[in-house]
Amino acid sequence: MKSSVIASSNPKYSREKLMEAATTLFANKGFAAVSIRELALAAGTNSGMISYYFGGKEGLYAEVLESQFKAFFCALVPILKNETDTMQKIKKFSQTLSSLHKEFPCIMRLYYSELTNPTACFETVVKKYIAAGAKMLENTIAQGISEGNIKKNLNPSYSALALAGMLNYYFIVQPVSDGILPDSPKRDEEYLEEVLQIYLNGVKAK
Amino acid sequence: MKSSVIASSNPKYSREKLMEAATTLFANKGFAAVSIRELALAAGTNSGMISYYFGGKEGLYAEVLESQFKAFFCALVPILKNETDTMQKIKKFSQTLSSLHKEFPCIMRLYYSELTNPTACFETVVKKYIAAGAKMLENTIAQGISEGNIKKNLNPSYSALALAGMLNYYFIVQPVSDGILPDSPKRDEEYLEEVLQIYLNGVKAK
DNA sequence: GTCTATATTGCGATAGAC
DNA sequence: GTCTATCGCAATATAGAC
């Protein structure tokens, strides 16, 4: 029984395998700390395939980022477009953002890596998605103000950023918060509930 | 006029010069993306000095982290130890944290780099400082609850994390928020004021 | 489409002159 | 305490067999 068909050299799948392996490796170690040998090994192929499919390590990284950010924001965008009232929108948005992190376990690390140690992709891919997401949330809050549900002395962009901060920071600080926060199995839900209580109570008019 | 005395080879200063150069380089590019040649060039010395003083690149990085975190937290700790009431403490803490970022422009990037792409230093230096800081803030909030100033159904560690998130996220997201937030010269102060308004209003009892 | 083998460059660390 | 020179190794990328 030779390694003829099912072996590591499974035609046409190297590309997908490389994308998968690269997503977790780049997310966990950062672009510079990952070698193409390591990527190829984790994908069950060889380093030549990275040049063949992506034109090199940078090309693979760029495609990982674009793919992750696109999928994440495509799942998030529809939330703020439905018909419920503003406070419900904010609540639903936060819940969705929170649950999406389980579906996209790598996106936060990829995002924060680009924030702290930007590569060329920061300008070409990260910025556009984040700016679009921020604008959406900002508009929702502005709408809440004009409807009289949210304090009118608040600045929508600052308030949007404050909410994003409470949610995003939680998911990146997990490696240190494991020794600090209650180790409840429903920790994510508990935190989300508490954040929403503080935030909604803090911004609501009257 | 030879380069005899004042030249790049200024005795006994290589160590300090390396520490300074390494702080900004590691903060901006991350540990793996910086070479010892680059460090030496920026410090006006040679790569041999890194092994001589720090035992290698990792040793230099470890000393940079320890030095930055120690100085930062030493400046922050006294704030929560004075006698004012809880709400004032939280306000003062936030203001100090905010202003310290101007004094320590590298600390956030070093911190977030370790959060997203941890090195050995995450366990040995970062974790202890962050855990201590988090505990302090948590205790302050717990005190506010027992005094009746803060809602008693809130969890002190979650609430502390929420505040830290609003503040810390703001400073790391700056590269993308430049195109989003109002470009007021007093942006930091405006954001801080708004965050405090939302947070204090959101957590206060009754 | 995949693999092995290799060319070339740059890395971190060190030895030894001054 | 500092510098130059260099060693050994691992990096990315590519050429060419299958």
Summarize the structure.
By secondary structure, chain A is mainly alpha-helical.
Characteristic key phrases:
homodimer, 206 residues, elongated, disordered N terminus, DNA-binding
Please tell me about this protein's structure:
Two copies of one chain form a homodimer. Chain A is mainly alpha-helical. Chain A folds into two domains: 14-60, Homeodomain-like (Arc Repressor Mutant, subunit A), CATH 1.10.10; 65-203, Tetracycline Repressor, domain 2. Chain A is 69% helix and 0% strand. Chain A is built from ten helices and no strands. Chain A has helices at residues 14-29, 36-42, 48-54, 57-76, 86-103, 107-116, 121-146, 156-172, 174-177, 187-203. In chain A, α1 crosses α4, α5 (86-103) runs antiparallel to α7 (121-146) and α7 crosses α8. Chain A starts with 13 loop residues before the first helix and ends with a helix. The model of chain A is unreliable at 1-9 (pLDDT under 50). The interface between A and B is large, with 57 and 57 residues. Chain A binds a DNA duplex (18 and 18 nucleotides) through residues 8-12, 14-15, 35-37, 45-53, 56-57.
